[in-house]
Structure formats: structure tokens, C-alpha cells
Amino acid sequence: MTIMSVVLWRVMPFVYQANGNPTISRKECAMSKYGHKTHDWFEAVINKLGGEAGADAFLRNELGVVRVAKQAVWSILNFITTTTVSFSARPGDTVGEFFKLRDGLYVWDNFRDLMDDNWLASTIQTIPATKISYYDLKKSANDLQINREFEYHKTPFVFENLGVLLAVLTSLILAQWNNEKEGPLLVNEDANLFYVRVGSGVFTVSVCWSANARFWYVFTTPQGVIKRDVGDRVFSSNEVSE
Asked: CB neighbours (10 Å) of residue 111?
């Protein structure tokens, strides 16, 4: 036993285990809650506190410890960011006039079928700054699996108000009308997916850019088992939960 070992023995008795790692003697430290912990464990704690000076500051209540919350792990979706969207309708900005087949925009009938004639004749809703979030698929999944992931993490994702969704879509498409600048919408022909409640059902609205035809096309499908591809983007109805 070295001189240093003798000194440590007198200060804090150790019992050397078979692997040579010292542990505090249970017999000598019967009053200690942590007598079963090794010397290395205590040293690691002190190092985490910043060494002797940090440990002393901690004991004087000059240094605090904050528990780090474990971040939720998303298995299907990868959160990208939260952004703000707004839209101010002008006279003549009706739903039916915007969402129709025309230069730069190809709107399928199944999307227009979500709305009756009154909806199509109505003015697109003006919305103030509205937060939406978007996520990219990191593995292939169908709508039901995507929905379950949002529900598991208690994150709202369905646009409960069709008028708000129409205004959001209008704003996003106009901002990237001819793929002239980058924005939230993907322009690599991957799908941009939105979920909206109409009546008692939830529908998936897909917005995609066609590089060859140079237009946006918009269509809808009922919720189901259609597989969405890795890289597709999913939009949620408000900012990500903290």
C-alpha cells in the first residue's frame, strides 16, 4: 500500500474489491446512505459540479442543479420549424376563383368536392399571423400512423377550420407561385401534406410542385393506408408543443 493509499484510508476507509476498484467500507460508514458507491462515482459527481470549488459552492447553496427534461423522440416525423402565415383577401378573392384549373395551378375535382357551392362562392378568409409547423417524414408511413404519432406527442395537427386551411394554402402557394423562391412548401415533387376536418371526416390535402409542367397541383384523399414517402412534408395546424 502506497503512502497516498494510507492517507486516503485514514480519511475515508476503503475496501478493495476483486477488480481493484475501491469502495467505501459499509462497516466503517454504516451511517452513510451511499456507502455502496465507489470512489470513482464520488469523483465523477464532484467533477460534474466543477471540481472542489464547484462542490464547495454547491454545499454553500451558491450553485444549483437543474434536471434536464428528456426530449421526446419522434419515430416517424422530424420536426423542421414553426413559421407564421397570414393572408389578406382582396375583392374577388373567392375560393372558387383561386382553387381552379388555370395557369400555374392544377386543382383536382376531389379537392373542390370538399366544398359546396356556397363555399366556392365565398371570399377566402382573411387570417392574421397564424403559426403552423412542419415536419419531414424520416420513414415511410401511412396517414393513420402519422396521425397516431402526433396524438402520442399531444401535438395538434388537424386544421379544424376549412376556411383557415384555404387561407393558409393560398398564402403558401402565392409566396412560391412559380417556384421563384424557397419557402415552407417542398418543390422537389415530394408531397406537402395537410390534414383538415370536413364534417365528421378528416381528409388529406396534398400540394405538389411539378417541375416539368411548372404548376402546383392540389388534390385530396380520405384518410387511409396510402403510404407516404420518406421526405414528404407534413404540416400541423399550430406551433409545436413545448
From this structure: 19
Give the C-alpha distances (Å, rounded to integers) separating 142 from 134, 194, 227: 17, 13, 4
**Is a pLDDT exceeding 80 seen at residue 72?**
no
The sign of the torsion formed by the CA atoms of 191, 194, 198, 201 equals positive
- Share the mean pLDDT of the chain: 83
Percent of the chain with pLDDT over 70: 80
CA-based nearest residue to 193, from 202, 201, 104, 88 = 202
Q: What is the mean pLDDT of residues 56-83?
A: 78
